[in-house]
Amino acid sequence: MAEKEKTIRLDIERFSTDPEDLLAYGFDASGLSGTAAVVAWPGTTMEVARIMRQARQMRAAVIPRGAGTGMTGGAVPAGGLPPGGAIVLSFERMNRILEVDDVNLTVLVEPGVVNGRLQRELAGYGLFYPPDPASLEFCTIGGNVAENAGGPRALKYGVTRDFVLWLEAVLPGGEIIHTGVQTPKGVVGYDLTRLLVGSEGTLAAVTKIRLKVLPLPQDVLTLLAVFGDVGASGEAVSRIIASKIIPRTLEIMDKDCMLAVENRGPVGLPSGAEALLLIELDGHPEAIKAEAARVIEICRMLGAEVTMAEDDDAREALWRARRGVSPALYQLCPHKVSEDIVVPRGNIAAMLSELKALAQKTSIPIASFGHAGDGNLHVNLLPKEKKDLTPVLRELFEKVLALGGTLSGEHGVGLTKKPFIQMEIGDAELDLMRRIKNVFDPDGLLNPGKIFPEAEPPA
Q1: Which residues lie closer than 8 Å to 340 by C-beta, 6 or more apart?
Q2: In 3-state terms, what secondary structure has residue 446?
Q3: pLDDT under 70: residue ranges of the chain
Q4: Among 263, 264, 302, 450, which one is most buried in terms of CB atoms within 10 A?
Q5: Phi and psi at residue 343, in whole multiples of 5°?
Q6: Fold held by 97-215
Q7: Which CATH code fits 219-402?
Q8: What is the pLDDT of residue 255?
Q9: Local structure of residue 197 (DSSP, 8 states)
Q10: CATH no. for 15-90
Q11: pLDDT for 335-365, tens place per residue?
Q12: What span, in angstroms and rounded, lies between the C-alpha atoms of 65 and 76?
C-alpha cells in the first residue's frame, strides 16, 4: 500500500486512497463500478464505529463490502453519493471464527469469514452450516447476511436468515447495537435481527454474527437425472416434492448451461440432453436409500436416465460442474445478464416454458439453471452484443409475477433491480421501507442509492 494522501485521513490504522486500491474496490460481480474516496480495512468493531462517526462528520457515504461476489451492485460505491464521496468499508481483516459452541450448536464469527472455510472448520467438530452459495469458496458470511444468501441446500434447510440468531452491528452514527438471542427461542421485542438480514448494508454494518449450526448428516446420496425434454425436468421437480420427499438439493441445468460448462473444461456432462437434475438426499442411510428409489422411479417415468454418484470424488465432480455454470456462461457471453427469479415450485415447468417462448420471441438465447426445488431459477440472457435489455427484463418479470413469483430469491435488489422493484412492491409498502431506512440512517449515508428507486420529484 502506497503512502496515504493527506486530504483524507481516517481514524484507523489501515486505509488507502491509492488509485489502484480505489479501482480494485470499486466494482463487484455485477459488472457495475463506481469510485470511492477511500478504502478502509477495520480490524475491530470499535474501528468500524470510529469510521461511521467520521463519515457523518465528512458527509461521506459508507459502503460495507464482503468479497464483492454480489450480483446486483450492492457493494459498488455508486448511486447518488453525498458531497463527501464514499468510504468502502472492507471487512476482510475481520475474519475470525471466534467460538464454536458444540453444546448449544452455535458458532460466533466476524463478517469477513469465508463461507467455505467455515464449512470445513465446522466439519472437524461434526457440525454443519447449511447455506452454501455457489461462490462459497469466496463469499463471506457478512455478505451472506447482507443479501440473505441461500444456495442449493436451501430447499431442505432454509436460507441465511433461518440460521442467524444474534448480531452485533454499528449504526451510521457510530452506535453499537446487539440484536437477537443466543438461545433457540426468543420473542422479546421486535425482531431486529431478521430486519437486518437481507437489508443489503443499508441499515447497519454487521460486525459479529452468531449462527445456528446442525450435526453433520449421517450420509449423503447424489443422483444425476438426465432428461430429453426441459418440461419433463420441471415436472419431475413438482412430482418429487409432491411425493413428500424433500431432498437437500434439487438443482437444474438446461442444455445451454451444460454445453457452456463442457466448453470451458470437459467434466463429463451428458451430450445431447435438454436438461439435468442434480439431486441429493441426506440423513439415515436406510431412509435415504428408500427415498432415492422413489426419486429414481419418478424421473424414469418422465423419460430420464438416472445414475448415482459412486463415491465422493464423483459427487464432487458433479458439484464442480454445477458451481462452474455461471463463470462458464460469462466466458461464453461476457455481457450476459443474470437474474434470480423465483416462482412457486409447482410452476417451475410453466416458467421454463415461458422462458423458452421469450427466447424465441426476442431472438436472445436464455440459459437457465439453479435451485429448482425451491423455485429459484438463475435466468441468463445471452445477447450477441451488449445492449439495453430493460424491455426484455420487464417482460420476464411480468411473467414471473403472473405465476405468483418474486423478482429475486437471493441476489437482492442493489442497483440492478431497483428500476423494477415497484412491479412487486406497492407504494404504501415501499414508503414504509423508506421510513424504516430513515430511522436507522437519517442522513442517508449508509450504502446510498441501493434498493429504492429514485424518488419522484414533488408536483
Answers
A1: 71, 370, 376, 377, 378, 379, 408, 409, 410, 411
A2: strand
A3: 1-7, 455-459
A4: 450
A5: -130, 160
A6: 3.30.465
A7: 3.40.462.40
A8: 94
A9: T
A10: 3.30.43.10
A11: 999 999 999 988 999 999 999 999 999 999 9
A12: 9
